[in-house]
């Protein structure tokens, strides 16, 4: 009985030792590794990549601006008697927008107008006397000295009339300064002064702009400037209204901005599209088309994604290779593959 237990223990020990040696790698089969080449199935679709000529476009951001704007200022010191407009009001050229206290000026105008009327009357009398004396002198009915006196009175009356006329012009001009008028038709954008305030020469009163003079203004990079010319049509996008217009280049500033090295380009908008809804300061984008360049695109079934990376299967000498490529959202190739290479479809 003891002999059987000893044999059993020996067998179990030998088996455990053998298992341990196998796990440790002592007994390893001498088998050569097998390499499995990647083969291209006959029914796989492929695509030979070709570049296409495509105009390159660049978008420059800017804003809408009014070509015709004005900030109206006082030309005299006076109290603001009345402000006749408010922000947002539409006005016509020549409308009175603001009136300064002009009681003294009004009285002055009446005074000089009366003086002018008196000077006119005296001039008429002097002219009549001169003509009469001229006739009598020709008939030798009056002496030369009497004619000379009539002539001197006429010259004096003419001088007095001119002075009175100049005084009226000056008084009316001063009175006109008290009435602030619209220099053009447009919209009021700012009311800087109110009734009862004191206006002084040069002090701003009101601001306005002509909505029919709205333009798009952008700063164009130096590299794109050769593709922009006066009179050229450019696409203008107004994100606020999701609207795209065709404008015409009006001016290109010949000097670059010292900081950005860009050039100011002004694009006029179509008259049919310009309205009160297009406001100065609104965001605008202008598209500039540059020369055509060869561009390579990958169709959506020619690449696949792993995470955020794009891959293609490239057929190279009957061998399929996986390659990482960089693409735009539209599938344009940035790098990783070239025209003439063959890729597998639906990889």
Kindly describe this structure.
The chain is of the alpha+beta class. The protein has four domains: 59-67 and 213-291, Efflux pump adaptor protein, beta barrel domain (Elongation Factor Tu (Ef-tu), domain 3, Beta Barrel), CATH 2.40.30.170; 69-101 and 181-209, OB fold (Dihydrolipoamide Acetyltransferase, E2P) (Beta Barrel), CATH 2.40.50.100; 104-177, Helix Hairpins (Orthogonal Bundle); 296-344, conserved putative lor/sdh protein from methanococcus maripaludis s2 fold. Helix content is 27%, strand content 35%. The protein has three helices and 20 strands. It has helices at 2-23, 103-138, 144-177; strands spanning 46-48, 52-66, 69-73, 78-83, 90-91, 96-100, 179-181, 186-191, 198-199, 204-209, 214-221, 233-238, 243-252, 262-268, 283-295, 304-306, 309-316, 319-327, 333-335, 342-344. Strand 18 (319-327) and strand 19 (333-335) form a beta hairpin. Helix 2 (103-138) packs antiparallel against helix 3 (144-177). The longest helix is centred in the middle third of the chain and has 36 residues, at 103-138. Mean pLDDT is 84; it is low at 1-39.
């Amino acid at each position: 009985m003891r002999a059987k237990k000893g044999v059993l223990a020996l067998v179990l020990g030998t088996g455990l030792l053998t298992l341990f040696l196998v796990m440790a790698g002592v007994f390893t089969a001498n088998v050569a590794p097998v390499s499995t080449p990647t083969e291209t199935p006959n029914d796989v679709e492929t695509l030979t990549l070709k570049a296409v000529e495509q105009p390159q476009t660049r978008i420059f951001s800017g804003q809408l601006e009014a070509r015709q704007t004005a900030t109206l200022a006082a030309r005299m010191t006076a109290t603001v008697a009345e402000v006749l407009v408010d922000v947002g009001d539409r006005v016509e050229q020549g409308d009175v927008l603001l009136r300064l206290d002009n009681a003294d000026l009004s009285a002055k105008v009446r005074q000089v107008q009366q003086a002018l009327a008196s000077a006119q009357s005296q001039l008429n009398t002097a002219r009549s006397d001169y003509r009469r004396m001229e006739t009598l002198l020709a008939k030798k009915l009056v002496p030369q000295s009497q004619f000379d006196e009539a002539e001197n009175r006429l010259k004096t009356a003419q001088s007095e009339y001119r002075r009175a006329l100049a005084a009226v012009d000056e008084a009316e001009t001063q009175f006109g300064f008290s009435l602030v008028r619209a220099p053009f038709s447009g919209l009021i954008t700012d009311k800087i002064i109110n009734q009862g305030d004191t206006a002084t020469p040069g002090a701003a009163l009101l601001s306005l702009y002509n909505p029919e003079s709205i333009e798009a203004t952008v700063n164009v990079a130096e590299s794109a400037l050769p593709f922009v010319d006066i009179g050229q049509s450019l696409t203008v996008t107004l994100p606020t209204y999701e609207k795209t217009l065709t404008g015409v280049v009006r001016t290109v500033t010949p000097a670059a901005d010292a900081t950005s090295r860009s050039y100011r380009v002004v694009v006029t908008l179509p008259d049919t599209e310009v309205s009160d809804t297009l406001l100065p300061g609104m965001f605008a984008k202008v598209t500039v088309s540059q020369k055509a360049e060869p561009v390579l695109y990958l169709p959506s079934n020619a690449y696949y994604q792993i995470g955020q990376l794009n891959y293609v299967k490239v057929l190279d000498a009957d061998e399929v290779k996986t390659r990482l490529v960089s693409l735009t959202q539209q599938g344009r190739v940035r790098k990783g593959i070239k025209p003439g290479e063959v890729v597998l479809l639906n990889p």
